[in-house]
Amino acid sequence: MRSWQDDVRGALDGLAYGARSALSPSVLQGAAVELAWLTTHLAMYPLGLVGRAPALPARLNLAGLGPAQRGLLVSDVRAAGTPILLAHGIIDNHTIFALMRRHLVRHGFSSIHTFSYSPLTLDVRRTAERMGREIEAICEDSGSDQIHVIGHSLGGLIARYYVQRLGGDARVHTCVTLGTPHQGTMAAKLLPWPLVKQIRPDSDLLAELDEPAPDCGTRFHAFYSDVDQLIVPQRRARIRHPDLQATNVRVHGVGHLSLPFHGDVVHRITGLLADLDDTPRTA
């Protein structure tokens, strides 16, 4: 029977391995970028404590729009009008999506919403239930029968639980996750916090997500970084489930907090959501 000392030792070994593998020039450059984005995000963070970002209602006319916005609205009005819900990670807020939100708006997406939860949250399941209620309200207000969800870190796991275990696949067309511990992280063994315990590799929550999910129609795209400091080892941010339409996208040299800000990641997500092709995609 494993003791807590064994868990801590395993977590520290994993972190030490990550540190040893993080000494290449490209990784060090990524760390510098991460520090820069962290500084920017910390400056913006207090704005997220005031309240959620205002929702942008869907817009179906071309007045005052730039070329990129007009292009999406003309080429695919359904894609432009499909609501997008942004879900932040633990001990964070909607400001982590500031650049992504701006980029999506510039490219024609206008029905953009944020989902927030307290850092004192204790359970992924209950938070996923609340996400489901918010999604239903968004769909009712917008008149859309589907929505996209982009989740960073724990926000991605909350979204996946809603889709996979609460029938959310009927609403969520595409679920994008960024640095989400789909298979848990050894780093979570260092903290006894109830919510953090749920993202340990051997947690009941992750065991539940490993259960069959027949006929789940949502397409998943999991972005994971080879230098993610919080997902140990980094490959645990991939989705491995035989019933899910999941594509895992490896990003090189980008830290955990930088994923929602990274230009290439944001560009890929924009292109992905502009394409509502329902053809199943596999990893």
From TrEMBL:
- Pfam families hit by this protein: Palm_thioest
MF terms in GO = hydrolase activity
Q: Where are the transmembrane segments?
A: none
The UniProt record lists the keyword Metal-binding: no
Residues in a coiled coil are none
Against InterPro entries, the record matches this protein to: AB_hydrolase_fold
Record's keyword terms, sorted: Hydrolase
Q: What name is this protein filed under? A: Alpha/beta fold hydrolase
Tell me what organism the protein belongs to. Answer: Kribbella karoonensis
Q: What is the lineage of its organism?
A: Bacteria, Bacillati, Actinomycetota, Actinomycetes, Propionibacteriales
